[in-house]
Design brief:
alpha+beta, about 525 residues, 20 strands, 9-stranded mixed beta sheet, globular, about 25% strand, 17 helices
């Protein structure tokens, strides 16, 4: 086969404008998705050739974020970048010849690389070609020298059956994922590419961990006002069109309410554009009032056609047309004999004492995990130090009743405030004979205050709301009560009289709400 060496590639663009890329409003998972999109498109464009070469072929994309050595590496075994595409691949906004796939604006790899780093190198060998080409882009040098072309290194006489692309980003910017973000990046990438992962056509690996997507469990129950009736699986297929705009997919109800899994994911060309992981789309047309039982249980996936997307592929345009299609979906769901929307409004899953205990234990375990982190402890210390003290004398606090009860678990804190050491124990309990939502008992000992508080999960407040659907509902309630208890302690330390009245009144009022 003829050798096609490339000596230079164009990066036509005013070099100073590259600096603007760094300040674009983007997210690490969207930026990394650009490399995944390119690899998937290379695979889709050459799928038949790849399978003919290797009947057991499977697309594999590896992403490594190495914070210790300050680099990001993306490697794929797709077909590579061919001669014609390599010529235009580094020019910003040079749109691909075929822009009907995942790579459509000619901006993704360039913007993502500069957004992440000061320096990147691309190395690729295309299937059936024998020249491996590599380019090194140094942002500071390009801007200082006002370069409009980059030198290409050509390695000739390669095996024409080999195929790959590697991108290495170095001198990472502040936009690169931090250690705390890595799990969230993994979760978003697995959510964005779930359809490719489901089809078993893609193996996506992040820091040596193959990504999987866990399907939410769908509610299986009888109609809300007929508890003894026949059970249904609450999932409905939908398909509508409005001119060139089309929508198809499903709407379902979650087995348990969830702030993360509820809401909708909007796909285009097989990948999620809007609504990945914990950033689901909650259209009021379908989901109703934010935070309502329907909103926390309704979920679904829609594949959209005919819609334009933003250049970073993080949102859809043509929103009025989308609302029109969602109205059609809503009408179908309301007109069904057993309306999935009405079921979402009125269905309540009654929790047994054992199920409540399990949810409570999961919530407490999650709280303990968060509170054991250095970040949490630093944030708590910083917050306490910012509370403005008033009168430093410690007054006698309202005492809670000291009695033997069923303790599920404990949370403990040692807090120094205004020169007083507080040793606080929060006991999470189940006790139907105990009328208070939470209590507070304190004892002075030397230079410290020993604090014992009980949070009673059998209080009527918990029974009147859907807090026990899962740990996501219980966690914030426990956090708020802890905050009230600590605030009462600090208020007394600052000289506030009768601070305990807030707790006593709140216990009574919440029993009626």
């Amino acid at each position: 086969m003829q050798q096609n060496n490339i000596e230079q590639v164009s990066i036509k663009f005013k070099p100073g404008a590259y600096g603007v890329y760094r300040s674009l409003n983007n997210k690490p998972w969207y930026a990394l998705a650009e490399y995944v999109d390119n690899a998937i498109q290379s695979y889709l464009d050459n799928e038949q050739k790849l399978i003919e070469l290797n009947p057991n072929y499977k697309l594999k994309i590896e992403i490594e974020v190495n914070q210790n050595d300050d680099f990001i590496r993306i490697f794929d075994n797709a077909a590579g970048i061919n001669y014609n595409n390599f010529l235009r691949a580094f020019e910003p906004a040079n749109i691909p010849i075929d822009n009907t796939g995942l790579s459509e604006y000619g901006m993704g790899m360039k913007i993502a690389s500069i957004w992440f780093s000061d320096s990147y190198k691309v190395r690729s060998l295309f299937l059936e070609e024998t020249v491996e080409r590599s380019v090194h882009f140094d942002l500071n040098k390009v801007m200082s020298d006002e370069k409009e072309q980059l030198i290409v290194s050509n390695r000739i006489d390669c095996n024409e059956k080999d195929h790959y692309t590697e991108v290495i980003l170095r001198n990472l910017s502040k936009n690169a994922p931090s250690g705390l973000q890595l799990k969230k990046v993994r979760d978003h990438l697995s959510s964005i590419y779930r359809s490719f992962i489901r089809s078993n056509k893609l193996e996506l690996i992040f820091n040596n961990e193959p990504l999987t997507y866990t399907e939410p469990k769908i509610l299986e129950s009888s109609w809300h006002n007929d508890p003894q009736g026949e059970k249904e699986i609450w999932k409905k297929e939908v398909r509508f069109s409005h001119g060139k705009f089309k929508i198809k997919g499903f709407v379902g109800l979650l087995h348990e309410m969830s702030g993360i899994n509820s809401g909708f994911s909007l796909f285009r060309r097989g990948r999620v554009i809007k609504g990945s992981h914990d950033e689901k789309f909650h259209p009021k047309i379908l989901s109703g009032t934010a935070g309502s039982p329907r909103d926390k249980r309704l979920f679904g996936e829609f594949e959209l056609e005919g819609f334009n997307v933003s250049f970073e592929k993080g949102s859809f345009q043509d929103l009025e047309e989308l609302d029109s299609l969602l109205e059609l979906v809503k009408l179908q769901l309301l007109n069904d004999k057993f309306s999935i929307l009405k079921q979402g409004d009125h269905y309540r899953k009654v929790k047994s004492p054992v199920e409540k205990r399990i949810v409570a234990e999961e919530a407490i375990k999650s709280i303990k995990t968060k509170e054991s982190s250095i970040e949490y402890k630093n944030a708590l210390t910083k917050t306490i130090s910012q509370v403005s003290p008033s009168n430093p004398s410690l007054n006698q606090l309202n005492k809670g009743e000291n009695r033997q009860i069923n303790i599920i678990d404990k949370l403990e804190h040692d807090i120094n405030f205004n020169g007083v050491e507080y040793k606080i124990t929060f006991e999470i309990i189940h006790d139907k004979g105990f009328e208070d939502l939470y209590t507070l008992l304190t004892n002075q000992k030397d230079d410290s205050v020993i604090v014992s508080s009980k949070i009673n999960l059998e209080h009527p407040f918990f029974a009147n709301h859907t807090i026990f659907e899962n740990k996501e509902g219980l966690e914030p309630v426990i956090a708020i009560i802890k905050g009230l208890i600590i605030s009462e302690l600090f208020s007394m330390n600052q000289g506030t009289n009768m601070a305990g009245n807030l707790r006593l009144n709140l216990n009574k009022i919440l029993a009626t709400l």
